[in-house]
Write a structure and sequence with these properties.
Elements lengths: L4 E6 L2 H11 L3 E8 L2 E7 L8 E6 L3 H12 L5 E4 L3 H10 L4 E8 L2 E7 L5 E6 L1
Length: 127
């Protein structure tokens, strides 16, 4: 058994697709109609046959409340691995990304947290 898709609630699928592809650099894998919304998945450019990130609409009240509560409590919705947190932090800052936590070393891991503009805090980690 392996993880093939993981979901991330977003408040606007078009805005999220632009942010995750144009700003972060993920590659769109699927973008198909699914009722009133779309099935939009992205993958890492380095692992295009690996786990897909689904930009899931937060239109269900429970999803919206969950997203708002973890955001207001400062809890990242997910974590992405990077080779060099400091370098990625600087690259994303140049693109206007707002960080809530600068690169911080915690044992063997260095972390930083940013706002994805779609209702989530995202953590990046260097192991």
């Amino acid at each position: 058994m392996k993880i093939i898709v993981t979901s991330l609630f977003v408040d606007d699928q078009d805005k999220a697709l632009a942010f995750y592809s144009e700003t972060l650099g993920f590659v769109k894998k699927h973008d198909v109609p699914a009722g009133e919304f779309r099935w939009i998945t992205l993958v890492s450019p380095e692992a295009q046959d690996s786990t897909e990130l689904l930009l899931e609409p937060n239109n269900h009240p429970a999803a919206k409340e969950y997203q708002e509560r973890i955001y207001s409590d400062g809890i990242p919705a997910t974590m992405f691995g990077v080779e060099d947190v400091q370098k990625e932090y600087e690259r994303l800052q140049e693109k206007g990304v707002k960080f809530t936590m600068e690169p911080t070393k915690m044992g063997d891991i260095t972390l930083a947290v940013f706002d994805d503009t779609c209702g989530n805090l995202i953590q990046i980690a260097q192991q």
